[in-house]
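Review form for a predicted model. The reviewer records the input and the model, then writes brief findings.
Reviewer: anonymous (R2)
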Amino acid sequence: MKNKKYMIQKNQLILLICILLIVPLITVFVGLTKISKKISTLTQNQKVNRRERYQSKILQFSVEIPNYFHVQDESLTINFISSKGTITIIRNGTNFNTLYDYIKEFDSRRRIKIVSTEKKSINGYESIFRTIEFPAGKSTQRSDYIYINNWVYILSTSSKNLYSDLDQIAQSFKYSP
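Model under review:
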């Protein structure tokens, strides 16, 4: 009888020791898994939000672009391409003394409907941001015009998913003669 009681107590003691060892190990494992997931998420967010400065020596400007864009430099046209679409930057020379005069003449040569217009200043330069619809509503384009020393830089996209990126890129614009 004593042996049987002793065996039961011994088995209970072994079970208690196993539980006391296993529960903390499981707790540590679960905690490490959660920490690992948080670190992984932070690392992915840092990659998504990382920006790079792109400089065009020929067109004399630089901008900050998100790292998920691929740059296609065609000398006089720069395309920033992502899975959501393309943002294009071109530069036109003008004899007009103001951006308003340039746009007025520019619009007179095109058939467009201006959906919205907003005047801004980008790094001290005269700028106009517009959303334009082309004939028969076939396409809409967001364009940011920046006037510097008789040059007009036009940053534009036809992808509504890129309007926010376009605005951020435009705000980072720097003229670099």
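Findings: Helices lie at 2-49, 99-108, 163-171.
Further findings: Residues 164 and 170 are 10 Å apart (CA to CA).
Recommendation: see findings above.
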